[in-house]
Amino acid sequence: xxxxxxxxxxxxxxxxxxxxxxxxxxxxxxxxxxxxxxxxxxxxxxxxxxxxxxxxxxxxxxxxxxxxxxxxxxxxxxxxxxxxxxxxxxxxxxxxxxxxxxxxxxxxxxxxxxxxxxxxxxxxxxxxxxxxxxxxxxxxxxxxxxxxxxxxxxxxxxxxxxxxxxxxxxxxxxxxxxxxxxxxxxxxxxxxxxxxxxxxxxxxxxxxxxxxxxxxxxxxxxxxxxxxxxxxxxxxxxxxxxxxxxxxxxxxxxxxxxxxxxxxxxxxxxxxxxxxxxxxxxxxxxxxxxxxxxxxxxxxxxxxxxx
Length: 307
Hints:
The chain has helices at residues 11-16, 27-30, 50-60, 110-121, 141-147, 149-159, 175-189, 192-195, 265-270, 289-294; strands at residues 2-7, 38-42, 64-70, 89-97, 101-106, 129-135, 164-168, 201-206, 217-220, 231-241, 244-253, 273-280. By secondary structure, the protein is α/β, with parallel strands linked by helices. It folds into two domains: 2-224 and 260-288, Survival protein SurE-like phosphatase/nucleotidase (Stationary-phase Survival Protein Sure Homolog, Chain: A); 226-258, no CATH class. The strands form two sheets. It has a ten-stranded mixed beta sheet with strand order 1-4-5-3-2-6-7-8-12-9, with helices on both faces. It has a two-stranded antiparallel ribbon with strand order 10-11.
């Protein structure tokens, strides 16, 4: 094992230098018979998770594979990053190097792993695809999408212009199921569905935590909406120390069940289907822009500005 040190330029400046199209792999590779030829693998459970190694080794049979994962479990960290203005250098550990598989561990988050992999290790030859997972939880609904570190890594990859797939819902202790799921993910990655992803797009995949024989098939679905007030806060104590006033609040479950509309990812998952949800970056409501422009006179004017 060897330890290597890499200097990362300030994150904000780095990302602003790249558009969604800049980092995309060579178009000629997409037209080739074998795709993806170059893959970056990560997860949010950390470098020691057996599922991510199974996934990396499955890809390494067909592709040049790079595994970059955090040194510890980083579940639920969304697309949080530690690299930035106050942290520009990281010490990473190369934990494995083989013929078609190289693996690194770093002190950060899943999104950091993607940034380092794409802008560091593979900056001269970007990966065709980023695959994140396989996570143990299913990452369903809007809430699962928003908070998942597995999906956060895929979201960061899409931001950098690299197609991505986030896979979740697989238990550790079923070796046969792990083998089946990883083999299936490799086939999904090589399909036209993944090959034709445009910059800014990614897929999330939720595999039911049941036996392989019980899985009923594959379905595409929207995310189940957020159920309001699953938790509420209650103040339990007031404190006063050194002239300052403190309050202790406790979050408690309300007992409400999540909203599960028919045909949503949660509903289909419960029925035993592998659920794939196509995602796209961007929160700008483009359809609303022309409406707002027509109603410009209704908005408060800035003092001293007649427009």
